[in-house]
Design goal:
Strand content: over 45%
Structural class: mainly beta
Number of strands: 21
Shape: globular
Number of helices: 3
Order of helices and strands: HHEEEEEEEEEEEEEEEEEEEEHE
Helix content: under 10%
Largest sheet: 12 strands, mixed
Distance between the termini: 40 Å
Radius of gyration: 20 Å
Amino acid sequence: MNPRLPIRLIFLITSVLSCSAALAADPAHDWLMKINQAARTLDYDGVFVYQHESQLEAMRIIHKVENGSARERLVSLNGAPREVIRNQREVICYWPDKNSVMVEFRKADSQTFPAILPERVQDLDEYYSIKLGNTERITGRLAQLVIVKPIDQYRYGYHLWADKDTGLLLKADLLDTNGTILEQFMFTQIDIGSTIPASVLEPGMASNNMIWHREQVEKAPTTSKPGWTATSLPKGFRLSAHISRRGLMRKRPVEHLVYTDGLAAVSVFVEKRAKDNKSFMLGPSRMGAVNALGARIDEYQIMTVGEVPAETIALIGGSVAPAQ
């Protein structure tokens, strides 16, 4: 199970409450705000399925908010046993078949189902068409469809079904530029608002004999300038985060740049290879909705990755260069 759970659909993002009263009165924008608010404030316990390509994963998610801070536990229900514990700062992944526990800081572009929305809804209007669709039944509950359609070839589209009573996202489709579904998340059962004991948020796997791996991450100071930059970006994309991280299995730091339009996100990783390591990953690759591009500049490995069309990765990744 991927602890980041793609559509990098997937999610806790900051508040949209700064939207103007005029935009909040728009029905489609209002529903996006409801989805965002519900994912950040509600307690819920449910089972959802995640389908991508020919694979189908089933997971239980338990989400609890206390004093404004969220914690959640995800448990894989098929395939190899996995558990993921998330809080505001860390992601702890339990892999019993590998006898390992991996602790990572929350990534700058990480999102978790069912909260896939941007920092500011109004920022999307220039790059996406947002409108309401029909109401449908999802997991026995009435849900409102919100359609988010890109206006160019550099981003994917979304169909979002929100619970009519609470606003919680019950189903989400990620669509390519032709309208084909690339990924789908859907709750098959959900209990919203019930009391969640702290005990059910604890891992169900004994980790005493497992090997623990901890990531080292240092956020770049606000006055620090990135050593690398992408010189060509699709309209609307901007640099939103600059982090220096030392991977779990790496000795050298990796510079991590995140570019976003408020909904879609692209990560650029820059790592200086050791003199005795001549192995570079080069060229484009794809896994489901995720596109990637490997490149080399002198002794540096450049990896550009995102849940966006290949054209977006080619444009951004092909323009990465040392900052002037």
